[in-house]
């Protein structure tokens, strides 16, 4: 078995910094067979044009010849946007062992993403809450630990879906291995047992409004920060036995969810201690892609934490190197964050598309960083 440790940059206003301390924990277990879920990779094109001149400003990429995903929603599998392209088993790119340190592993280890006979996993259930922000009853899926008890308190991960998704996008999608990653790492005592909340990120006050590729249709996603902070998080904290405080509150998202994860983290860094934005979609700052023109929520110079004195313990931005949907936009976010002195980790998953391999990698590395940080305390 090969142990792979990859270098990464922890970016700050002072340039690349490597954290030096590490401890080694070797994990070994009998692996169960992985189920391959077939899907064809899309053409290697993206929302963003190649940033050939390496300028920090967001690229304009609306040329029709660069389109790999049609704007006619009826002809598309919308789960591609919501929870990722499904790929065949790429087990050759993953290890069965890993070292617990602050390094990034491009691939989620097989030991962590596989269903194991010695581990009992929680199951997703559905619930609702009333949103004052939207004036509506809204739904969410929640993954509780298999032995959840009101006598114990648990950290919480809020996991955000992509465009056209809803609260079921991740809970019904087994290829992203959320239950396995969380359950296995908890069973191996790397992380605490963790609650995962998958909300409906489309925070609209009109129950008939539908998402789409235009400014008005996208606005409810940008409104989710208000619903999350003012309605959903207080509900979760009152209805479930959760640990509070930023050190116990995690945020991650994919595609449109990755975009909102970055925006929410920059605006409210005091709320989330550990963050991962996976394959983040364009639109935080003004830009034009092949789908639409984005007015942007903030300017490029504002791609930094609203409170400079408060930063997440870990802030990861990652993307597949062959992402056919968002292209180079995640890397452009990284460059803007770096230029504005916002401390974060950036890495690419070699060969991954806008797919479940990117999602598994991002979630694993988020929890690995959490495990490493908490092993030192």
TrEMBL record:
Q: Which InterPro entries match?
A: AB_hydrolase_fold, Esterase-like, Mycobacterial_A85_antigen
Gene3D superfamilies with a match to the protein in the record: alpha/beta hydrolase
Q: What is this protein called?
A: Enterochelin esterase
Q: Which organism is it from?
A: Butyrivibrio fibrisolvens
């Amino acid at each position: 078995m090969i142990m792979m440790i990859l270098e990464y940059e922890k970016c700050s206003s002072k340039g690349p910094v490597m954290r030096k301390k590490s401890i080694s924990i070797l994990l070994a277990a009998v692996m169960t067979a992985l189920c391959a879920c077939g899907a064809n990779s899309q053409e290697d094109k993206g929302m963003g044009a190649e940033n050939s001149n390496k300028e920090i400003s967001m690229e304009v990429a609306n040329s029709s010849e660069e389109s790999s995903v049609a704007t006619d929603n009826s002809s598309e599998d919308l789960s591609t946007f919501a929870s990722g392209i499904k790929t065949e088993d790429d087990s050759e790119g993953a290890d069965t062992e890993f070292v617990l340190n602050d390094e990034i592993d491009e691939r989620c280890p097989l030991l962590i993403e596989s269903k194991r006979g010695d581990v009992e996993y929680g199951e997703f259930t559905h619930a609702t809450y009333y949103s004052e922000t939207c004036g509506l009853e809204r739904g969410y899926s929640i993954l509780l630990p298999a032995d959840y008890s009101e006598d114990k308190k648990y950290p919480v991960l809020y996991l955000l879906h992509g465009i056209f998704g809803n609260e079921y996008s991740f809970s019904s999608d087994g290829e992203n291995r959320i239950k396995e990653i969380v359950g296995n790492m908890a069973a191996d005592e790397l992380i605490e047992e963790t609650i995962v909340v998958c909300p409906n990120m489309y925070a609209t006050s009109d129950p008939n409004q539908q998402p789409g590729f235009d400014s008005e249709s996208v606005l409810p996603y940008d409104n989710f920060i208000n619903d999350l902070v003012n309605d959903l998080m207080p509900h979760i904290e009152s209805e479930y036995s959760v640990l509070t405080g930023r050190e116990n509150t995690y945020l991650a998202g994919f595609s449109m969810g990755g975009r909102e994860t970055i925006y929410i983290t920059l605006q409210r860094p005091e709320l989330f201690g550990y963050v991962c934005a996976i394959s983040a979609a364009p639109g935080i700052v003004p830009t034009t892609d092949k789908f639409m023109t984005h007015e942007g929520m903030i300017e490029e110079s504002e791609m930094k934490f609203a409170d400079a004195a408060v930063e997440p313990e870990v802030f990861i931005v990652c993307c597949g190197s062959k992402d056919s949907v968002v292209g180079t936009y995640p890397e452009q976010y990284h460059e803007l964050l770096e230029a504005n002195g916002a401390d974060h980790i950036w890495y690419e998953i070699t060969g991954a598309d806008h797919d479940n391999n990117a999602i598994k990698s991002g979630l694993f590395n988020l929890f690995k960083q959490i495990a490493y940080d908490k092993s030192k305390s």
